[in-house]
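Per your request, structure below.
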């Protein structure tokens, strides 16, 4: 059996599969199911102090979308090319209740040699720092600062801070890092023109890892009704996003070097997709929508796929981190083939 350990800053994970924050990690029961299935870490449903962000959870809606932009049944057996289109909100109860649950969750995770990660989404910076201090005092071992929640621009004003400015990210993480000493992971949006700059800003401010990247906002007209699907704009992600995430992993790796650990998200449906992220330079992968739409069996199945791949290739996990990224060539280095384009022109 292959060793799947991976190191994220000061944290040694038993494997590269992290469950990303979502509705299935609002309650301890879902967290325990993910841990029991083999997840190295579970990111608990994110929280902040804003009541509008909590109330937004009661206005959520979810749809699985096929490649023809039609809704699929929510039967936990989606086709592999299904995308998730949804509105969401934050943890629905007061921060004190979330903190108590998060602390219990991380204690349970220790029994599995795993971690539960506290996820804070900024509304106000002062409250973010205050909550980070409370997380540390509660004994929770890892803090995620999520500045990339896709719904930020559509939520009530001030409810969710979606940050695309590298300098602002540096300031946010510096303020948190000055207040706590536990490892800080930063989750970034995909809705930016310069993701590598945001990665560098988080790294320079003291983050131990950066997760890239959050889902995109979308709008899907329903051809039958002529209305917007789900009534409005919503976050959109799926397997189609994997090449985009891989591209940003490679570009970020080029900018910050190979030693800083990156975590990938948005596009991984199974262990083979996780391997694609690892080959692009990630050291771990946050898997979220695939578990939400297909169930916890995705976790154990994905880990088996990674082990099988390494066995067949006779490689260790560390061997493949960035293997494809480091072989990427520029356009100028590609082989010249005169008039090759003609082979692809329709008759």
């Amino acid at each position: 059996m292959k060793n799947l350990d991976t190191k994220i800053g000061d944290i040694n994970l038993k494997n590269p599969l992290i469950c990303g924050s979502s509705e299935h990690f609002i309650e301890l029961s879902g967290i325990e199911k993910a841990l029991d299935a083999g997840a190295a870490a579970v990111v608990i449903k994110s929280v902040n102090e804003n009541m509008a962000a909590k109330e937004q959870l009661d206005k959520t809606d979810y749809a699985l979308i096929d490649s023809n932009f039609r809704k699929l049944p929510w039967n936990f057996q989606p086709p592999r090319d299904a995308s998730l289109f949804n509105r969401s909100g934050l943890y629905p109860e007061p921060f004190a209740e979330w903190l108590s649950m998060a602390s219990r969750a991380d204690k349970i995770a220790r029994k599995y040699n795993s971690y539960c990660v506290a996820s804070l989404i900024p509304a106000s910076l002062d409250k973010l720092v205050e909550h980070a201090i409370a997380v540390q005092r509660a004994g929770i071992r890892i803090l995620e600062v999520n500045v990339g929640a896709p719904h930020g621009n559509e939520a009530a004003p001030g409810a969710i801070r979606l940050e695309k400015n590298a300098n602002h990210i540096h300031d946010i993480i510096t303020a948190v890092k000055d207040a706590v000493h536990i490892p800080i992971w930063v989750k970034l949006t995909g809705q930016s023109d310069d993701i590598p700059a945001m990665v560098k800003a988080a790294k320079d401010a003291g983050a131990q890892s950066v997760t890239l990247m959050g889902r995109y906002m979308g709008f899907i007209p329903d051809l039958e009704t002529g209305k917007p699907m789900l009534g409005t704009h919503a976050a959109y992600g799926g397997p189609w996003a994997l090449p985009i995430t891989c591209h940003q992993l490679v570009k970020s790796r080029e900018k910050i070097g190979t030693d800083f650990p990156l975590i990938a998200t948005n596009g991984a449906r199974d262990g083979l997709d996780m391997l694609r992220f690892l080959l692009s330079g990630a050291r771990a992968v946050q898997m979220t929508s695939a578990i939400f739409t297909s169930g916890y069996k995705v976790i154990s199945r994905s880990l088996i796929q990674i082990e099988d791949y390494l066995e067949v290739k006779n490689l260790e996990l560390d061997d493949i981190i960035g293997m494809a990224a480091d072989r990427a060539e520029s356009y100028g280095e590609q082989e010249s083939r005169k008039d090759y384009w003609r082979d692809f022109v329709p008759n």
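The longest helix spans residues 95-111.

Regards,
D.
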